[in-house]
Amino acid sequence: MSSKTKTRLAIIGAGPSGLAAAWKLRDSDDLKITIFDKSRGVSGRAASRARHGLRLDPGANYFKTDLPEISGLIHHQLPQDDLVEIVGDINVFDAAGTISAGDPKLNAEKKWTYRNGISTVGKLLAQASGCEIRSGVRIGGIRQNPESQVWVLKDDAGEKLGYFDAVLIAIPAPQALDLLAPEDVGIAAALSPATYQQQWTFTFGYDSEKASWPGESYALINLDRGHDIAWLSRENAKPGRIPDDTLGVMAQMSPTWSLENFERTPDELAAEVNQMVAPFLVHQTAPEWKWFDSQRWKFSLPIGRVDLEKAREVESCGAYLAGDAVVGKGRVTEALQTGLDVAERIRENIVQK
Length: 353
Ligand SMILES: Cc1cc2nc3c(=O)[nH]c(=O)nc-3n(C[C@H](O)[C@H](O)[C@H](O)COP(=O)(O)OP(=O)(O)OC[C@H]3O[C@@H](n4cnc5c(N)ncnc54)[C@H](O)[C@@H]3O)c2cc1C
Fold this sequence. Notes:
By secondary structure, the protein is of the alpha/beta class.
């Protein structure tokens, strides 16, 4: 097939879902895929940052490979040299901060990340897909020409980025709603039920002679949702990340606390969060941090879920949806699976037509 007759597919979002779709479609010679992402790097909320000479993951902490197709992808099809297991249980704590043992069944499941950061999953998919990725380009609007059925994408300055036969929207649903033209009522109806919670993440580096983690666990999770901290983890449990002289502790704050404090600055909040973290560490007085890092997520984890019936209906106009909003669960694995699934339908509907 000549390049002129290739079907042009735009993927909005180089997170796990968009990249998994691109990877699955990598051998479709009759498809020309362009991925757009507003960030400089890939992998979305499965994010890693170079900070204080270290690699920190302020978004997704780890992923499991319990879904068979994802297990095949991670353990066989993508390179595994950098893949590492996070050893240690996830215990639980209540509103009063009392710690107890976590669910043994869940703790028996392996938790994975990459030595160089969880964003490696996105980088590996991007590399293996071989697609053109236009990083640092924020899509500002999409519109379908009612006669030609061709989609036009514009950036946030209103500049045209190109014409496409189909578009895969693989970004958090509220961000996707902002891109739609007024006539895109079908896509809007599909996306609307999926809202997201907000979240602050803080990571502290403490002198390991002055503060230590309580026991051998990897993390502590607040199950009754009564504590201002939702998740606390010992980042040293991730192989190769934190040197022995430092205790790396990540605190992901509760949605309620995050919302209440969303507009405050990291410098204002760090001391308060440190005070909340202190009682969980072996040294009960608030230890002084050597460094801290923070990230504010406007769209952290989905609360609702995309209307799947309506999402299928809009596929006939060449609009496809993927991402954690489609499953209503903030999980890397599930997001990857939505990308693989939607790629199958794209292949059936537009490539093999
Ligand atoms: C604090 C936090 C903790 C988490 N913990 C875990 C965990 O422990 N385990 C787990 O499995 N999952 C966890 N998750 C959830 C996991 O990160 C997500 O479910 C997963 O990344 C979703 O992938 P996605 O492809 O749907 O979207 P994303 O990862 O959000 O990717 C979307 C991409 O689209 C880009 N984008 C957005 N708008 C535009 C636009 N207008 N134009 C161009 N590009 C755009 C973004 O830059 C991003 O790269 C966590 C998430 C957060 C925030």
